[in-house]
Amino acid sequence: MPAHIAIHGFQLFMLKKLAFLAHSWQKKFSPTPLLPYSPTPTPLLPTPYSLKLKMKHQELPIIGWREWIALPEIGITRIKAKIDTGARSSALHAFDIETFEIDGKPKVKFKIHPQQRDTNQTVIAEAELIDERNVRSSSGQAELRPVILTEVNLMQKKWSVELTLTNRKLMGFRMLLGRQAVRGFFLINPGKSYLDNN
Predict the structure, then answer these.
(1) Domain membership of residue 130 as a residue range
(2) CATH of the domain at 115
(3) Contact 159/65 with Cβ under 8 angstroms?
(4) Each residue's pLDDT tens digit, 85-138
């Protein structure tokens, strides 16, 4: 008999023996009646929390690993985004970035080419500058990036997302939507694309 099978059989025997001894001890000293001893463990029932979590996940819409989204507050009606759960933050392609102030409030102005490999279509946008952060790119280089808060539209959902602005002209996608942006809103199917038919 192989050694691993013998060890498994011995462990099973000892577990049954310990369960029987514990039941006998409780039967002798416990003032309340006990359920009959069974060597087969009772299956665990789902807790209210696990049921609630399962129901919540079942209610979330499913998106693919890449989707067409809209950023209406900065004038982008359609841009292809990669849903990147490996990245914490979200990033938007931008160039000619300028920071300034109006009435003491920091602002940022920038240009965007929303379509990949198309430099003829340019969107000029302006937004409130909420932060500047050091972000490490996938190549390992750290960069100080402006951060804006803007509305994202996807799967008939509208919610605000923090976007860092950086030049992504050499990257495969004009935008990355990180896990912080999609957590609690969607489930991701990494084998599917463009599941939003709207």
Answers:
(1) 62-189
(2) 2.40.70.10
(3) no
(4) 989 999 999 999 999 999 999 999 999 999 988 889 999 999 999 999 998 877
DSSP 65: S
User: Would 88 be classed as within a structural domain?
Assistant: yes
Do 72 and 28 lie in one domain? The reply is no
Number of domains in the chain: 2
Instruction: Please say whether the beta carbons of 161 and 79 come within 8 A.
Output: no
Angle, CA 17 vertex, CA 12 and CA 22 arms, to 5° = 130
- Is pTM beyond 0.90? Reply is no
Tell me the pLDDT tens digit for each residue of 52-88: 555 555 689 999 999 999 999 999 999 999 999 989 9
Q: Exposed, middle or buried: residue 34 (CB in 10 Å: 0-12, 13-18, 19+)?
A: exposed
Q: Are 73 and 127 in contact (CB under 8 A)?
A: yes
**CB-based contacts of 128-137 (< 8 A; 24+ apart in sequence):** 129/99, 130/162, 131/162, 133/89, 133/164, 135/89, 135/91, 135/164, 135/166, 137/166
| Statement to judge: residues 12 and 106 lie in one domain | no
Tell me: do 86 and 176 sit in the same domain. Answer: yes
